[in-house]
Amino acid sequence: MIVSDETGWEFETIKRVYANFGLDKNGETTGVVWKIVKQSSDSTALRAEEIRIEKLSFPVEPRDGKRFTIKARMRYHYAPAPQDGSGREAEATKMAETILTIPGKRPS
Amino acid sequence: MIGAEGVVAGRAEQAADFRASPLPATQCASCHVEHFAEWSRSFHARSLTSEDFLKTFPHYLESLGTQAREDPQAAMGCFSCHAPLLKNAEPQVVRQVTAFVLAKEIKRLDGFEVGCVGCHLDEGRVFSGPIGNPQENPFHASKFSTSYKEASFCATCHMWASSTVPCSDVYSDWKKSRAAKQGTTCQACHMAERSGIAAAGAPQRKIHGHAFPGGRSAAMLQKAVVLRLKAGFREDRLEVTATVRNLVPHRVPDG
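The joint structure predicted for all components is written out below.
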């Protein structure tokens, strides 16, 4: 989720990861399919028909902008991001996107 | 000394003999044109050759120990779903297919994937399906079965089927869902109904998609969740509430 002002300046991005984890035979959390023997309580995947509420707080005050745009984007990643220090993200497909605009109080 | 390539080549003949007997999907294609074309694009058609499977299978065998590569039972932990025809195969054929997968001999795996026979071959050369009054034809006998309309049909593979390799639990999730109570099956979403021809020369009727779209389909992913936002200032912070609603009767992501 990204919050920006009327100029396009981005204040902050907050991410949430919904990932499917399991437990191996020793009870350790694993994302590795052939080791999973049961569902882990650490799994952050959305459960069947779940409604999940995320409360996010941004260090942004009304006087920081005339208008704020909050953009939430949900993407499906097929693999974890490469651990090569490049900062690149793995291949993903868009699932949902929504935008909300609220007024600010920055003087002209 | 024979290298890995020599071993694989030497085994190719036996595997080809086995493959010729239980009908690879390509043999069904001349009559079942639409279904074959859809299936060819599906992950069922790539059950043995997808990048993920080729990567995961050797790791799985390694995790079982040094003898696992030569143990047909170990490989069948994966093959019982990923190559269902092998359930009736001799141990040496299972070893051959194991060698092909490990050597990434993709062309030699043709015909062993989750094909038409895996789901539709009943007994002998009788093929069953969800069509109530199947057209007679000179190639095989056809039989109606209600099981194709039930979610439990998919459970054979799409749940924690084996005590050693439980890699999918979609069916168990679905069973507890509101969708299950309402009678919405796996097929309703993953095998959409439409009007069409099941086989060459057959009448127009309701048929079902065989591309099995899922997590790799942008259209399916975009139907899976709804995202809503509410926001307001509280003291010196912007507080945002995001509501993420999973519309599907299994976990997202799953598998």
